[in-house]
Design a protein that fits this description.
- It is a single chain.
- The protein folds into two domains: 171 residues, NAD(P)-binding Rossmann-like Domain (Rossmann fold), CATH 3.40.50.720; 144 residues, N-(1-d-carboxylethyl)-l-norvaline Dehydrogenase, domain 2 (Orthogonal Bundle).
- The chain has 15 helices and eight strands.
- β2, α2 and β3 form a beta-alpha-beta unit.
- The N and C termini lie far apart (52 Å).
Length: 326
Amino acid sequence: MARIAVLGAGAWGTALALQAVRAGSQACLWARDPARVAAMAAAGENARYLPGVALPAGLALTHDLAVALHGAEAAILAVPVQHLRAFLAGLPGDAPPLVVVAKGVERDTLRLPLEIVEALRPGLPAAVLSGPNFAHEVAAGLPAAAVIASRDTGLREQVGDLLATPAFRLYGSDDPVGVQVGGAAKNVIAIAAGAVIGAGLGENARAALVTRGVAELARLAVALGGRPETAAGLSGLGDLLLTASGPASRNTSLGLALGRGRCLAEVLAERVGVTEGVATAPALVARAAVAGVELPICHAVADLLAGEVTVAEAMGRLLARPRRDE
């Protein structure tokens, strides 16, 4: 039986571990804290992130990284982008091929996830998995689709064998840059979409903003070496539609709160999971500036999060932009 390690027991890591078991793989879910592992084993669920979802008997749990990786054909890295570098530094030298599921841009270096992997583990095969997926729905076995992106055809096929089922359809892509840009930008644009609704500006404004957001992420993807059509796929438009569609999204719900006048620090203090768009927004704008690409919506979100503009001021700035052909 094929074996896969899932490193990181948040909602998405746990959901993917369950999916691996469903796909017929032998899966081991790793969490850093021994107490959390013991609590999950005792309760038979990840009560902190996926309460009410039973962990299957075939899913191994451990806090020992060596145990998790032993014999694994691949390892899913389900850790936030801002912690990815430190985590990679602690991986053993004989680590298997990696599948990164984090979405974002590293604050200090402005690197995408696979660029961080290449910097720390050059030559190690790596892929990125992305798409319109809420963890609780994948954990429940509801129908979903995602993209596994790598220039290594064999790795794409291997990950598909480890994770895919009829209800979890995996599409391959040889455009990891475009897929990563989509995953990063959609979180930022979703904050803007939530802020528009929270401020009472209407569904027309949200639809226009989301559509123009797709144009922004496509421009950046092309500038960084990706393909424009990737922006219209599952990892671009698809993920953005899901993330910007309602309060089940951490990024949209954050935007809703900001649009209603709440303080960013107060909202974040109430949360368990990471809202990736907060750290990604300024990093994405900075990366785009280096590439000579203008991202007015993402820039407005970065300024909103920094407390430099209000929602009304940010929207006014966007509406005041010169008219142009689409």
